[in-house]
Prior knowledge:
Two copies of one chain form a homodimer.
Chain A: H1 9-33, H2 36-43, H3 50-53, H4 57-76, H5 85-102, H6 104-115, H7 122-145, H8 154-170, H9 172-178, H10 186-204
Helix pairs in contact in A: 1-2, 1-4, 1-6, 4-6, 5-6, 5-8, 5-10, 6-8, 8-10
Chain B binds a DNA duplex through residues 8, 10-11, 14, 35-37, 45-49, 51-53, 55-57.
Amino acid sequence: MQVKPPKTSIRADNEAAILAAAESVFAEVGFKGATTSEIARRADVPKANLHYYFATKEDLYRIVLQRVLTVWLSAASSMDDNEEPEVALSRYIGMKMDLSRTMPLGSQIWASEIMRGAPMIKDFLETTLKEWVSDHEIVVQRWISDGKIYPVAPKALFFMIWATTQHYADFSTQIAAMNGGAPLSDEEFETARLQVIEMIVRSVVKPPAAPAKTL
Amino acid sequence: MQVKPPKTSIRADNEAAILAAAESVFAEVGFKGATTSEIARRADVPKANLHYYFATKEDLYRIVLQRVLTVWLSAASSMDDNEEPEVALSRYIGMKMDLSRTMPLGSQIWASEIMRGAPMIKDFLETTLKEWVSDHEIVVQRWISDGKIYPVAPKALFFMIWATTQHYADFSTQIAAMNGGAPLSDEEFETARLQVIEMIVRSVVKPPAAPAKTL
DNA sequence: GTCTATAATCGGATAGAC
DNA sequence: GTCTATCCGATTATAGAC
Lengths: 215, 215
């Protein structure tokens, strides 16, 4: 008994092409704006054929969304609470910037889903995401108590991190327009990545106490 | 000869209702996802009737978009280059936070438009917005030369400001979920507003030189 | 298992009634 | 000037062919 039967090459290829096409269409125009015809066109499969592999547009969307949530979770776990705030924050922010670079479509789909009221991930937001926030608020509070960072509202910090890092994915069109019309090169992105880390870290982490000049 | 003939009350009321409904629908599902039927439904006018007041869906969208751009410009001009960086930045960030609070739909429509590749505001981005950025990069560079702020890439700073402030509009659903399911109250928002200003200012503005303990 | 012809519905827009 | 019946193309989905 084979739990995971090997898919035919045709099926595997078609499903992969459809999922990739779906990701790009959903990222551009959201769930409501997407049409199965456009997805099929980009996947280069006959329009009606798509429904053989994925019964409904909603099924397709759910699968694409699920992958986004999975990726989010992997990044979320990269924030190591046992490190010093500067290290933990730098790693997490850097990881989120990497995600915006390598998987911008996922970020855009997330944004679209939130803007329409998050009908399909409401539960994820209220459970998994909420718990991550609650858990890490405690960490930030401890950093504050230990005098390592300024007294800030933890949520405001998380929102700033999410907003700024995801901006490089969600608003890449606007960023390109500010960059003379071309998307950021690898070098330009790396500079931005370091800048974002540096600014956000400085926004909360106290500088090391300056050694008294005399004593 | 009357340049601006007074609109009948019926026309004025219907147009206003349709525009308000259009704004909310476009904010939720973007241009592509919006349907004239849904807009008409929310405006409480017969579906096909909408087309009497606004010829096409695109016309309606352009008008709504235009208002968003106008508001953006008014906020943009609130950054006074002659002030000290802390004052200028605080005012601009505060103004952007106010906009996110009072006109969240406009922010969401902007985000949607950017995510689909900005077909209708490409020109605005490449001219007006690009010029604002170029002009203000010079200001930030001067602040750096004057030793008032840390050496940061000006664009990275602008993006952080836009991203963080607009996050409170674009991701209000997610923020509400983190807030126990309820949107931020006026008090909670005011706290967030102050936190955002404080963090972003600290991310770039150098603290006043500490007076030497002894000398 | 894979794919296509076609049904059923919804969408944007208009011609013409009031 | 205001509004409605209606057209036509687009869209989702399926029944059934290969």
